[in-house]
Write a structure and sequence with these properties.
Strand content: 15-25%
Low-confidence stretches: 168-172, 290-295
Number of helices: 17
Radius of gyration: 29 Å
Length: about 400
Amino acid sequence: MMGEQTRTESLFYYFRLEDQIPEDHLLRLIDQHVELSFVRERVKGLYSTTGRPSIDPEVLLRLLLVGYLYGITSERRLLEEVRMHLAYRWFTRLDFGQDIPDHSTFSKNRHGRFRESGVFREVFEEIVRRGVAAGLVQGHNLAVDGTMVEANASPGSRVPAEKRKDTVAVSRTAEEYLTELEQTNPVPGAKMISATDPDAVWAKKVGPAKMAYFDNYLIDTSSRVILGVEATPALFHQEVVAARKMMEQVQKFGLQPEALGADKAYGSGEFLESLLARGVQPHIPVIDRRHQTYGRFTRDPFRHDPARNLYYCPEGKALRYRDLSRAQRGHIYQTTEADCKGCLQKGRCTPAPSCKLFVHWNEPARQAVRALVGTPGYEHSQRTRYRIEALFA
């Protein structure tokens, strides 16, 4: 006989949430290996000693994790999903007899206590430490890169940097935020700044320009585990700033990186020299646009005599030290007009009366990195650094 399901509701249901969550469910696996109770002690000083008990800060943090893990960006929708989803309720410790927090309370804590305490970074670092302790992270070969993230700010919100305070509603909170921003995360060289999102800048990478940030990752290429994250304004030079900061922070995990792979955006002499000083091999293409004569020859045919601080051109003429260029961060060497007069290769060298050569301050580091090109380690880093793109996606 054909069965027919009728819509009936019981007044009471007797079952345990624990029994409804599969053993291999993502949230159960995370719950087994990640301890989040430390957040209570971390934010304890941000709560009053009197008044009604608040929502457990660990519950709020677990709610945020559910949102990030399952791509739920709206706080209202997140709490609606938690209300209906058994696994979400189980992970966040919200039984059927407990009320779901209001979205406004959730938002205030996220933008207030949690942001002020730095608890998000602590959770991230604790997870990385556990991955290292479990042997999931080797930490020998790393990769760094940044991707552009569009900001939730319209082009029309841009105002001259010196007038942005006048465009914000006069309130103590807004003034404190702008003061803090100027001290901790200034945007050098930005003439126009968004009044609604001062951290973002007008930038273009692919397609039309937009208000944006850079999201920067440092990863272990063997495991694809993210070891460092930094958000910066979408400015070219900020990628190196973020990379330098993440390389400093990775030491707290007890890792000793041997090599770092990256694209040419990270090939500045200053950054390469800082890596070599740490004992890290920079598997990075060198930025060479300044290392050429003011003419047609590249720098390669010029021979250096460090004892006399001279360079010799392909014809054997000496280029003596002439000047220091602080703007370009390097030194200028030059021949005399008499040396170049009548030279058979002058047409290939320079149209000027004499030959000039620019040498960057960090040229020894650049030379050391150029020597790594083509080695097995360099080629391996350049192949595996693309694994970071999957994490951005």
